[in-house]
Amino acid sequence: MQKRERNKFSLWMLAWPIFIELFLQFLLGAADTLQVSKISDDAVAVVGFSTQLFSALMTLFMTVASGAGILIAQRIGSQRQEDARTIAIMSVKISAIIGLVISVPLYLFPGQIASAFQLPDELMSLAKTYISIVGGGMVLVAVMAALSNAIRNTGNTKGPMYTAIGMNIIHVGMNYAFIFGKFGFPEWGLRGVAISTDISRLLAVVVLLMMFLGAFERQITLRDFKLYDNKLFKEILKIGWPLGINMSCWVFSQLLIYTYIAKLGAIELSARTYMNTLESFCFMLGYSLALALQIQIAHLYGAGKVQEAYKNSYRALWIGLAIVTVNALVLYLIGGKLLKIFTDNPEIIAMGVSLLGMNLLLQPGKMLNMGIGNALNAVGDTRFVMWTSITSMTLIATILSYIFGITLGWGLVGIYACMILDEYIRGLWVLRRWRQKQFIKKEEQKRSSGPHSSSGSKGATLEI
User: Fold this and answer.
1) Which residues contact 141 (CB under 8 A, 6 or more apart)?
2) Domain boundaries defined on the chain
3) Which of 7, 83, 120, 369 reaches 20 to 30 Å from 321, CA-CA?
4) Is residue 92 a contact partner of residue 212, using CB atoms and an 8 Å limit?
5) Number of other CB atoms surrounding residue 387 within 10 Å
6) Residue 103 has pLDDT above 90, yes or no
7) How far apart are CA 271 and CA 253, in angstroms?
């Protein structure tokens, strides 16, 4: 039984389904971009802008889902299945409520929201349609994220992967039908893409919910969604709110960067959207390793195996660095040809090609952040990661990006240079923290105080 549990939480067994899931999400994004590009480059710009807006708002419910995910893995590692089950139920319920609160204003006021972020006037009509429909379905994203997170942190990374496969197939198929009016469907263009997005997400929620009900040792029933444990909820918030702020810093910095790029013009906005799609290819496998590492380390930490958790982080980091570097090099060599698949606008292609070399520097810095940052999160050291994000992203990713990109007139190149600097500063910062072994020292201190204290330390979070 222990051997099966150990294999279930091995890095490879956790990582490969996450990679397949992320790869399918990448294909979904690429297919979306490719299919939307057949409508117009303006439609691509709207989808790119809206994606950043939605990602920023997602941090509000991901605070609960992410914090709960880490605690679920820790509790399973310390053999506290009932606590893990209760935490999972609360995370789904609370995420759904937050998602609903987000959905209402997006559905009712899409134009006002787009105007607030200085979207160019020529994109406004498309933006109102897309933000209203996809934004109105953000409650589905909230529930889907909470369900996937809970299922994944039980060690079952295959379930969300299979769900992603089905969702991708349905979404791409409906995109084709709605954009071009095939199979008797109306030719709705970008409106059709938005409707396709909501339908595929709704189906994914239904499948994940069925999976979630049987994810723990004791079956979850619909009546169990009344469960609420104030002590456990406080633990979720304690570990989750710094995660939420960390995610918010990154997403809002990206949203501000998109606002800067919108000032440069629709061509620059389209180029950045295409580059986002290509860059996803680079860090996909590295990110899957980082997510798997977080689950593994949280499980080991909950079981009290802190030295093993510390060593495993470096193995995953070196593998991830090698992978993203090779992927970035491949993209550098063939990226120009790939851009021509998405658009025939020579200005957009030239702008994208100029950024491919900079991407070689960007991706290793991202991997360092993803790997070691997630390792710190897994042992509860979420506040330190939060403070590094607040400091670096505020000063470099947002303020310096504006100075170099807009004020000094360096454009996208200046913005990318600041993004690279931000990644490396944060990466070296969290690496230094990890090497200090604060969580190991704390665990050893608790063990030395006696068996009673040691047993109570399992799954604890690290105070800063």
Assistant:
1) 54, 58, 99, 201
2) 2-437
3) 7
4) yes
5) 16
6) yes
7) 18
Distance in angstroms (rounded) separating the CA atoms of residues 418 and 456 = 44
Closest C-alpha among 348, 350, 178 to residue 273 = 348
Per-residue HEC secondary structure of the chain comes to CHHHHHHHCCHHHHHHHHHHHHHHHHHHHHHHHHHHHCCCHHHHHHHHHHHHHHHHHHHHHHHHHHHHHHHHHHHHHCCCHHHHHHHHHHHHHHHHHHHHHHHHHHHHCHHHHHHHCCCCHHHHHHHHHHHHHHHHCHHHHHHHHHHHHHHHCCCCCHHHHHHHHHHHHHHHHHHHHHHHCCCCCCCCCHHHHHHHHHHHHHHHHHHHHHHHHCCCCCCCCHHHHHCCCHHHHHHHHHHHHHHHHHHHHHHHHHHHHHHHHHHHCHHHHHHHHHHHHHHHHHHHHHHHHHHHHHHHHHHHHHCCCHHHHHHHHHHHHHHHHHHHHHHHHHHHHHHHHHHHHHCCCHHHHHHHHHHHHHHHHHHHHHHHHHHHHHHHHHCCCHHHHHHHHHHHHHHHHHHHHHHHHHHCCCHHHHHHHHHHHHHHHHHHHHHHHHHCCHHHHHHHHHHHCCHHHHHHHCCCCCCC
Looking at residue 344, its pLDDT comes to 82
| pLDDT of 214 | 92
Q: Tell me, what's the pLDDT at 105?
A: 93
What pTM did the predictor assign?
0.76
Query: Virtual CA dihedral for 459, 460, 461, 463, nearest 10 degrees?
Result: -160
Average pLDDT of the residues in 140-147: 94
Q: Which amino acid is located at 67 in the chain?
A: G
Higher-confidence position of 248 and 317? 317
Both tokens assigned to 176: 């084709």
Contact 101, 181 (CB under 8 A): no
pLDDT exceeds cutoff 60 at 126: yes
- Which has the minimum average pLDDT: 41-45, 385-389, 411-415, 425-429? 41-45
pLDDT at 445: 72
Q: Is the pLDDT of residue 424 over 50?
A: yes
